[in-house]
């Protein structure tokens, strides 16, 4: 029987661009180039490796996001995923993480799955909680923040390097996993992959297709409210000296003046 | 006054510092009630009482150690139901965030993660967060349900505020998912004897410029002279020169010490994301154009192999 893998990928503003907030205090997506979150490339990569090891597997990449988020899906398809699902609806604008988890869980159930693979965090929101929320909503085990993962005989295993210990984890499928950037470099799409991706199916779903109401999501339906966003004042220009042989001593003098020594 | 639940992060009964900071913040919005689970839970009570916990709800069972996250969510939910708090505060560790998020969905609440400050407001607690690699500061609230908020280390001062800290047993019924993910084995991280990276008042970090695992001894020597923790950039970690557990940045630890010293680190946005809120920033880099110099209070353009050992000697000399 085929192993059905769903990879959740997010389309995010480029971290090296000038990211900021729109007037309604949502992330501005117009003025900065978007791309597939780099941390989700690791999720696609691990899904591809798991699929290679399985007798028969199918990888669906899933995103909840605006029109342009199709770019993220294309990139994942060009890396080797089989098909894509794009949840897109004007009413989704401003949805927070609790709402996003609701939408993703519905879309995952509709798609059908044995294994959900996520990145460790999105590079814009950086919450790192969505995989745990998906497990809660789907009522399946969470096997998250893995730096190593494998699937064998309906069991997922992995290593989680935590704050105080490194743990070996194990759960039966179906399950939700998330992988860190320690899990192994993601492949670059090949030319062949890029060409093939153009022909792979991308299904679009809206809230109605998922039996969701507009008031359960979006800015109005959000479980949290951002009241203000202010640019952090630029740090006042510091003192910069060139080392002419006394740099370490000068630095010590500064640290002493600040009472660090 | 309304009660505020504080989830306790501890290792065998030793309360970790971020939890004590949470008690300071909790007292701004209500009376702190602590929830401690797992081996040593009851041993946390004296420290928690000393810092303001009026009650300490404790539970221990093999499930807490043998299975991932969910048993702890079950316990926090039991405490939530027993107390009906005005807010739930959890330390912002990777695990803390997961516990908090799952609780939020269960109780129909919103969640705010990685707050760096918390105040009482007219419509519930107001959380300050940093966004986009700390280039923005936002203020936000949970607008549905009981606020569930995770707070980063070093967000508040630890304050003594003696309270009763009465220990009460918490009855926990484990959910069907509690045993879903088995912890097959656990290898505790070896202690280096240095302060915890996220809790340290001073962090000394090395990057690609350190140029080799053996050269990290120079960084460690400076750290030890200052009583600091050691950090590393991803480039240094990826090269295998220093453990990933010491990585500072977006996919490593986020630190906010009084003093951050970067040596041989260029200051890429992903690195800045993890250290930009440090109070005082110092850099040593041989490239005067390195972006890290945009952040510094004091910078030395020079070779770290000259500057760092000289600094270490000078610190030691001054300490006598
Ligand atoms: C999704 C994603 C997540 C990431 N997460 C992180 C993260 O968590 N943490 C992180 O750090 N990075 C992260 N990165 C990587 C980041 O983009 C940079 O590549 C990395 O921070 C560079 O490390 P560095 O500054 O040590 O190396 P470099 O950028 O190569 O800089 C080395 C610096 O050392 C200086 N130097 C060299 N020799 C000497 C000498 N003898 N004396 C003095 N100075 C010297 C050079 O002038 C240079 O400025 C991430 C990247 C991505 C895409
Ligand atoms: N809008 C989205 N669409 C698809 N997947 C997402 C979305 N947001 C988050 N994810 C997934 O959840 C992970 C963690 O996200 P977060 O909790 O937002 O940091 C990401 O790495 C993605 O795998």
Automatic annotation (TrEMBL), chain A:
SUPFAM superfamilies assigned: Adenine nucleotide alpha hydrolases-like
Alphabetized UniProt keyword annotations: Electron transport, Transport
Pfam families per record: ETF
Names of required cofactors: FAD
Domain called Electron transfer flavoprotein alpha/beta-subunit N-terminal: residue spans: 24-214
SMART domains: ETF
Assigned protein family: Belongs to the ETF beta-subunit/FixA family.
Function: The electron transfer flavoprotein serves as a specific electron acceptor for other dehydrogenases. It transfers the electrons to the main respiratory chain via ETF-ubiquinone oxidoreductase (ETF dehydrogenase).
Subunit comment: Heterodimer of an alpha and a beta subunit.
Protein name: Electron transfer flavoprotein subunit beta
Species of origin: Streptomyces noboritoensis
Automatic annotation (TrEMBL), chain B:
Domain of life: Bacteria
Function of the molecule: The electron transfer flavoprotein serves as a specific electron acceptor for other dehydrogenases. It transfers the electrons to the main respiratory chain via ETF-ubiquinone oxidoreductase (ETF dehydrogenase).
InterPro entries the record matches: DHS-like_NAD/FAD-binding_dom, ETF_a/b_N, ETF_a/FixB, ETF_asu_C, ETF_asu_C_CS, Rossmann-like_a/b/a_fold
Cofactor section: FAD
SUPFAM superfamilies named among the record's database cross-references: Adenine nucleotide alpha hydrolases-like, DHS-like NAD/FAD-binding domain
Alphabetical UniProt keywords: Electron transport, FAD, Flavoprotein, Transport
Span of domain Electron transfer flavoprotein alpha/beta-subunit N-terminal: 4-183
Binding partners and assembly: Heterodimer of an alpha and a beta subunit.
Protein family: Belongs to the ETF alpha-subunit/FixB family.
Record-given protein name: Electron transfer flavoprotein subunit alpha/FixB family protein
Electron transport listed as a keyword: yes
One Pfam family of this chain: ETF_alpha
């Amino acid at each position: 029987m085929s192993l059905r893998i769903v990879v959740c990928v997010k389309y995010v503003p480029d971290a090296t661009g000038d990211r900021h907030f729109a007037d309604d205090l949502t992330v501005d997506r117009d003025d900065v180039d978007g791309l597939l979150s780099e941390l989700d490339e690791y999720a696609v990569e691990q899904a591809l490796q798991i699929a290679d090891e399985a007798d028969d597997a199918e990888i669906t990449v899933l995103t909840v996001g605006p029109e342009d988020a199709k770019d993220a899906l294309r990139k994942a398809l060009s890396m080797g995923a089989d098909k894509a699902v794009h949840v897109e609806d004007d009413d989704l604008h401003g949805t927070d993480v609790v709402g996003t988890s609701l939408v993703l869980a519905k879309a995952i159930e509709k798609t059908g799955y044995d294994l959900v693979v996520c990145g460790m965090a999105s590079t814009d929101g950086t919450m790192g909680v969505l995989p745990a929320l998906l497990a809660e909503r789907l009522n399946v085990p969470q096997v998250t923040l893995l730096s190593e993962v494998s699937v064998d005989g309906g069991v997922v295993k992995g290593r989680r390097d935590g704050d105080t210990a490194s743990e070996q984890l194990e759960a039966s499928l179906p399950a939700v996993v998330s992988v860190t950037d320690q899990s192994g470099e993601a492949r670059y799409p090949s030319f062949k992959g890029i060409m093939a991706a153009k022909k792979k199916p991308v299904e679009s779903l809206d809230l109605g297709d998922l039996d969701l109401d507009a008031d359960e999501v979006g800015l109005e339906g959000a479980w949290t409210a951002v009241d203000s966003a202010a640019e952090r004042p630029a740090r006042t220009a510091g003192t910069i000296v060139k080392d002419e042989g006394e740099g370490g001593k000068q630095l010590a003098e500064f640290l002493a003046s600040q009472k660090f020594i | 006054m309304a009660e505020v639940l504080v989830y306790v992060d501890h290792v065998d009964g030793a309360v970790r510092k971020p939890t004590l900071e949470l008690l300071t913040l909790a007292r701004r919005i209500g009376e702190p009630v602590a929830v401690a689970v797992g081996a040593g839970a009851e041993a946390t009570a004296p420290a928690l009482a000393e810092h303001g916990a009026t009650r300490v709800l404790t539970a221990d069972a093999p499930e807490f150690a043998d299975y991932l996250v969910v048993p702890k969510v079950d316990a926090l939910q039991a405490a939530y139901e027993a107390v009906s708090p005005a807010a739930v505060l959890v330390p912002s560790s990777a695990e803390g965030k997961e516990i908090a998020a799952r609780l939020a969905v269960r109780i129909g609440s919103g969640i705010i993660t990685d707050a760096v400050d918390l105040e009482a407001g007219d419509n519930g607690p107001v959380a300050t967060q940093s966004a986009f690699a700390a280039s923005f500061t936002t203020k936000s609230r949970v607008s549905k349900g009981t606020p569930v908020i995770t707070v980063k280390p070093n967000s508040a001062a630890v304050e003594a505020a003696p309270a009763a800290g009465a220990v009460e047993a918490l009855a926990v019924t484990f959910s069907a998912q509690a045993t879903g993910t088995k912890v097959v084995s656990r290898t505790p991280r070896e202690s280096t004897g240095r302060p915890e990276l996220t809790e340290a008042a001073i962090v000394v970090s090395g990057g690609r410029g350190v140029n080799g695992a053996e050269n990290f001894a120079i960084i460690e020597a400076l750290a030890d002279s200052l009583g600091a923790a050691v950090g590393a950039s991803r480039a240094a970690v990826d090269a295998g020169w220093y453990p990933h557990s010491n990585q500072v940045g977006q996919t490593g630890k986020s630190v906010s010490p009084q003093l951050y010293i970067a040596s041989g680190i260029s200051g890429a946005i992903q690195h800045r994301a993890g250290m930009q809120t440090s109070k005082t920033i110092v850099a040593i880099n041989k490239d005067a154009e390195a972006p890290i110099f945009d952040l510094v209070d004091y910078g030395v353009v020079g070779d770290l192999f000259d500057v760092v050992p000289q600094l270490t000697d000078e610190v030691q000399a001054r300490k006598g």
